[in-house]
Amino acid sequence: MDRYVIEAKDISKNFGAKQVLDQLSLSVPAGSVFGLLGTNGAGKTTLIKCLLGLYKISRGKIHVLGDDPWDFMEATKEQLGYVPQSDRVYPWLTVKELIAYTASFYKHWNAPLIEKLIKEWRINPEEKLGVLSEGEAQKVSIILSLGHEPKLLVLDEPVASLDPAARRQFIKMILQIVSDRECAIFFSTHITSDLERVADQVAVLKEGRIHFHGELGALKDEVKRLHIRSEQQLPDDLGLGREKVIYCESSAGEAIVSVRGFKKEFKDIIEATCKARVEVEDLNLEEIFLELNR
Amino acid sequence: MSIKAKYYFTVSTSSGVPIYRQIIDQVKTHIATGRLEMDVFLPSVRQVAKELVVNPMTVSKAYSLLEKEGVLESVRGQGMKVHKTSVSKKDLEKREDQMVPLLKEVVTKARQLSLSKEKMAALLESLWKENKNG
Description:
By secondary structure, chain A is an alpha/beta fold. Chain A contains ten helices and 13 strands.
């Protein structure tokens, strides 16, 4: 088994003159739940479509389950599950009919698993897809993506149309999937509280570039907000180096600065170089997301 | 006897503290206060993950860091239990450690509100008495 289920190196994607992905690199470890965080228009869906070979990348290299997405082998496709953002193509079919239709595309299909999930999620198999609510339709798509028991499940904004109760149910299902079988999950979202429960790896996408990539806990350890009070003018980089400063707001001897790559020594460095007093504030994921997107 | 994770741990996603660290802090608190005693087995990673609705990797990270610190001890085929020495070290220093992060927050807030050290001490004094009486 490879260490990574997804490896993208220096990939770019242009639509005409518009560059959506800009030399982006990403690696998703096997068995992980990977959350891709980004604002609307950051390039999440484009990235997902490139990873699945639905868009051709302009530059760079991608390996998904060891294979090139643009030229996926059939065997690789059998191991991939994908839930796109909106997926209501056959409103005239019943849930049961859609299941049978989807199953016919795959060599391997775990019918009892689907039956079990349909029951657990309280979906009526006789219902027509056209009359399902947004949340129910989403659940059906997710369940269908699991029938062939993929090694990698890719979900594009899976919780966007779900209410808090359905979102919690979704998270429980994701956690159940990862603890029951060998399956990595890659999903995009902008809802940070869900991500925090379910993901162990996270990447922050902004304007086509990755701004953080690593363990979720590490992100919280690395991005902090500093409250600084000083008698003297504060230097722009606070003696830390420009690349560490995400955002700085200062007036008359007081400053609020968000920094990346935080280490405990920062406090001492700033206090020494700027003759200042520094308080370190922990940020939750949502605040970090907002800071990185300023 | 197995412990129900929900009664022992609570996680908050709106906190600036990573979930794995929240679990670590809570295990230590429970040991310091005697709620988790020596040789007691903690609920399994799977169970905690399920009850708290968090990723199992997060729980397992917390447990393995606690094991590295000598707070927990892994017993083959049985899970994680509270290590002897971590309980015997249930001394003043350990308990003080528990208060430090809380007090740091208090100090920060007090400074923001321009309350003096003396004012804060007086406030603590009166709250202490009140708590005892109530």
